[in-house]
Amino acid sequence: NIWQQKWVIGNWKMNGQLQENNSLVHKLRSFQTVPNVCIGITPPTVYLLQVHNAVQIVLNNPIYTCAQDVSRFSEKGAYTGEVSAEMMRDVGVDIILIGHSERSLYFNEKNDVQRQKIENVLKVGLIPLLCVGESLKEREDGREKEAVAYQLSVFKGLKTKNFAIAYEPVWAIGTGKVANREQIADMHQFIYDEVLSLCGNDANIRVLYGGSVNDKNAADIFSVPHVDGALVGGASLKYEAFAAIINAAQ
Ligand code: PEP
């Protein structure tokens, strides 16, 4: 049951090429028997099928194929450039990131669009992984919880019991700055409480931490209460680093 496992999800962002993807994924397949860790790889859309085919071949503990984004439109049709949740499911995607801070930063994506995307993902039976996190300014102003609560409000009234969230303070993404143990513990507890109050006590919840997780700091981060895994950017592109993070999650 993945709702009781630690999740280690690599987000490749806009990186990768056929050959290097293949060699990275083939090395990672040796980790498919790691107990109690849900491993995911999130390649650019154009490589989803390649990654899915490469991870599928083996054993009992799968590597999940994840997508970085999805269309807010659910029906097929005249939406040039878009890829629907149904198409993601068709090529073997399991989990779809929603609302990564780079989507808000560069594409001005807000709660209403994220809500539509989450609904589309749930409708086709896949798992949305909602990314939340405050900006540096919001933390300096002491408004980090207010910011995260607002982002989490997209869950209100959804017809699901399963909630996957990545807490990624924007100031810690790709910067080498990691939130400290107290900041992580405090926010993860807050996210649990918020989701339970929005969505009911029988919710399944996974809260991953994201923001400059690497092979050196992963074990420490995983030992913080209510940290159910990590969303890993930069370090997921290097086999040794990503493998070490998976090992630290066991
Ligand atoms: C991310 O993109 O979700 C992320 C956490 O990136 P990085 O690990 O590179 O900070």
Helix content: 25-40%
Structural class: alpha/beta
Q: Which CATH architecture is right?
A: Alpha-Beta Barrel
Strand order of the largest sheet: 1-2-3-4-5-6-7-8
CATH homologous superfamily - what is it? Aldolase class I
User: Count of helical segments?
Assistant: 10
The tally of beta strands, per DSSP, is 8
Poorly predicted sequence stretches spanning 5 or more consecutive residues: none
Radius of gyration: 17 Å
Q: Which strand-content bin applies to the residues?
A: 15-25%
Describe the protein:
With 250 residues, this protein is α/β, with parallel strands linked by helices. It has a single domain (2-249), classed as Aldolase class I (TIM Barrel), CATH 3.20.20. It is built from 10 helices and 8 strands. The protein has helices at 18-28, 48-56, 85-90, 101-107, 111-123, 136-140, 144-152, 181-199, 218-222, 239-249; strands at residues 6-11, 37-42, 63-67, 95-98, 127-132, 162-167, 204-210, 229-232. The protein has an 8-stranded parallel barrel with strand order 1-2-3-4-5-6-7-8, surrounded by 5 helices. Strand 2, helix 2 (48-56) and strand 3 (63-67) form a beta-alpha-beta unit. The longest helix has 19 residues, at 181-199. It starts with 5 loop residues before the first strand and ends with a helix. The mean pLDDT is 94. It binds phosphoenolpyruvate (PEP).
